[in-house]
Specification:
Chain lengths: 215, 78
Amino acid sequence: MIAIYEDMDETLLLKSLRNGDEDAYTWLVQKYHTSLVRLALSFVQEARLAEEAAQETWIAVLKGLDRFEARSSIKTWIFSILAHRAKTLGQRENRMVSFSELDDVFDNAPSVNPERFRPSNAASSADHWVTFPSSWDRLPEEIFISQELFHIIQDAIAALPGNQRAVITLHDVDGFSSDEVCNILGISETNQRVLLHRSRSKVREVLENYLKLEN
Amino acid sequence: MAMTCKELVELVTDYLEGKLPDVEVIRFEQHLSSCDGCTNYLEQMRQTVRAVGHARQDVLAPQQWQDLLKLFRDWKNG
């Protein structure tokens, strides 16, 4: 639908929007609204508030079109507004999501349960696997695209701390580049990668436990 | 010094995202070549990333869209 906007130059897209082109707006909303709500859920608990944050974002976008200087892409601009709005709404819910690197000390848990490795002072094979992780290659491909696995992944992501959830949602669910994620959340590249690593490691562990039962 | 399994699992995202320094990539891949456990682990992480990438099925509900369209028309009519 309205595919012309997909390849349109951003300057032209911006011009269309400023001129009140309803098709351009429709395209943007269809493309990004559900992703905005998904990101908002990293900051607020209630679905209603996430929807509110996304709606307020579109209002802010429309009102800000004339002032937008295109120093970032339109997409990054829209998602930055959302992140800011959702964070504020989350504070009202007493939910604080911090991206401060200082706060990482509260979650510096290892990526893999240390009991899976031989002790560091073992005479041989120190810090090596006690038993190997299994290969998932023999599992039927359907498992990885099943509805059940989809729900397990959703729950695993929802259980993450907000900062990790925001990063994995943007980077791995919605396919944003690391640069875009950093700009949207206002974090350093290193911090982004630490949060991405922690979130992926946790989701992997959940999948491992589930696939063990399925096997 | 040779990389341990415990060390490798902390570097997987840096490796997959191409952010591991060259010297570390060599140690990483040397370890992989002799460790089936870590080879499986790396593959599990790859499959996790792929599966997470499929975790979006949400569509805009008609009512949601009506609300958003109204926002636009109100804005346009100033």
